[in-house]
Amino acid sequence: MSPSVPSWASDLVPDWPDWAMRLMLSAGGVLLLATAASFVHDRMSLPKSAASAAAGDDLALRSKFLRFKRQYLLVYLVIMLADWMQGTHMYTLYLSYEVNISALFLTGFLSGAVFAPFLGSLVDKYGRKNFCLVYCVLEIIINALEHSHDFKTLLLGRVLGGISTNLLFSAFESWMTTQHRKSGFPEDWLSTIYAESSIVNGSTAILAGIVAQLLEDSLGHIGPFQGAIALTVLALLLILPWEENYGEEDHQQQKKTADANLYQKFKEGWTTTSRDSRIWRIGCVQALSEGAMYTFVFMWVPTLLSLDPPGGLPTGCVFSALMAAIALGGTLFPHLLSLSRLLSPRSPTETAASLTYAVAAVSMATAAAGLKFRRHSCFGPVLACFLTVETCVGLFLPAAGTLRSKYVPDALQGCILNIFRLPLNALVVAGTYATDHLQPEAVFALVSVWFFLAAVLQATLVGGNKGIKKD
């Protein structure tokens, strides 16, 4: 406890080391300032482009867009809050059940890899809204299964969890992107939704940690999962008014898609991905960057603990600061995009993403070097590198989403987004294996290489915007 805290307030302030208190106050202050500035900027103007100019600054169109954005982000907030509440306490729940935790997590990854290629075809054929609802139903079932101590029942839950995770990161985004275009909104307004999704993601992670802890204190280890059920039911009700879309705009093409053989849809997705190098490059960049991100997630706690920080490591405090860094990245993304337009007017998002991956690579390389050569005095610099990487995550998530919407055809969004998850799951498994068999500095060096490869591969798309099809 810091000596500057009055005695009457000692019961209200967490008993954290001084560095942790300063970290939380600094992260919270910077995030609040950035969010306030972003809110003011958003209220005053939306991105300008030839498309938005053609809309004649139509106030009715802007008002309609803001309603659409709020409608989507509200659902996104609820489902991500429910997802984070499970993620923060799943390990401790399984630990209390005394089951094989690694087998359960591996089952989830394998399930995601097995079902990914086929789910996308179903999403595109039967509708994105319908599969958002399917996601909610699956999550309710999964969280109900978590009440069981039976290992086979938990395994079933992890199999369903692999399916639902694929839907979470494909059906919702596919629906939003296609609906945005069907509503006639300018193309560059999509980036504001992705940026604010990143802010929501980081902010809900912080909130989830607090809410989940309160539920666990009152209901036991299963409490956060019961809360997730309630939130998922709420999300299901919020999705019901959504308009359905299949990635096609005209009725005849929509009917043709609905009547198409699933195998043909599946084959078309793979053929489109393999023939268009821009699409598979985007998929490889996503696999490398998110694979690096998940590997980092596995490593940050044991790494910081091994550095013996002064006063101990309040993991909840550091987790909240890292999530605040993600939200900060989301608020900074529009400004990075503006800067990138000066450097590369034709490919601002590609340039922004490549720069972000490069900074993440340097940060991870710096952390690896610190652990290798100055292990006993590198806690502060390593923590700073971790915060930098999470800020980069907040920057590259909206960039990656914007680029997927740009290069992946609407009609095949669900299929191709699930195809992207195949190499991603493979890298996550490889990263998990590395964390068990390599020294921390070697793992972070590997993560740095993955980010560097993502930066280089992303840079190959700079200036290559001709012939893009969105339908």
UniProtKB/TrEMBL annotation:
Protein name (database record):
Molybdate-anion transporter
Q: What does this protein do?
A: Mediates high-affinity intracellular uptake of the rare oligo-element molybdenum.
The answer on whether this UniProt entry bears the keyword Transmembrane reads yes
Q: Which GO terms describe its biological process?
A: monoatomic ion transport
Q: Which SUPFAM superfamilies does the UniProt record give? A: MFS general substrate transporter
Predominant location: membrane
Output a single Gene Ontology CC term carried by this record.
plasma membrane
Task: List the Pfam families hit by this protein, alphabetically.
Answer: MFS_5
Subcellular location(s): the record lists:
Cell membrane
